[in-house]
Write a structure and sequence with these properties.
The chain is built from four helices and eight strands; from the N terminus they run βαβααβαβββββ. It is of the alpha+beta class. The radius of gyration is 15 Å and the shape is globular.
Length: about 150
């Protein structure tokens, strides 16, 4: 099993560094698949997932910030927050912009196809341990019984 925790740059002026990092992460995901690892990738993607899904539903390629989301979608990774949302079109938010209270979903947990644990639930909650403008995204799993 391979667990990848990421933080993608939030600063839009670091486009080249962010694109390089996304390419490195995609290479790691490709090698994980080639080496038959079951993979979880999670963290702060600093790109709005709802805008990505909206763009894809209109058959748009989206912008460079969505390269990793395109890879995950094309390779059938499961977006657990979206999977367990009551409204697939609006899965809820994970980030609150302190300046104006605007909300977006930039944090996520994805699992690779045929992941060996059944996901039971995924949700967000406010941190009770520290102050943050991000919500905690938590997922719960159970082993799949083999017969």
């Amino acid at each position: 099993m391979r667990i990848i925790v990421i933080y993608l740059h939030a600063d839009p002026t670091t486009r080249m560094q962010r694109q390089t990092l996304q390419a490195q992460i995609i290479d790691l995901l490709k090698s994980s698949q080639k080496e038959h690892y079951h993979t979880i990738i999670m963290g702060d993607f600093n790109a709005n997932l709802e805008r990505f899904y909206n763009s894809v539903s209109k058959h748009n390629q989206g912008n460079w910030q969505y390269a990793i989301f395109h890879y995950l979608q094309q390779n059938q990774f499961s977006d657990l927050h979206r999977l367990y949302s009551t409204d697939q079109a609006h899965s809820g938010y994970t980030f609150i912009l302190p300046q104006n209270g605007a909300v977006s979903r930039i944090d996520a947990i994805f699992t690779s196809p045929n992941f060996p644990f059944a996901s039971l639930y995924c949700h967000t909650r406010k941190s009770f341990l520290y102050l943050s403008d991000h919500l905690i995204v938590a997922a719960y799993f159970q082993p799949i019984e083999s017969k």
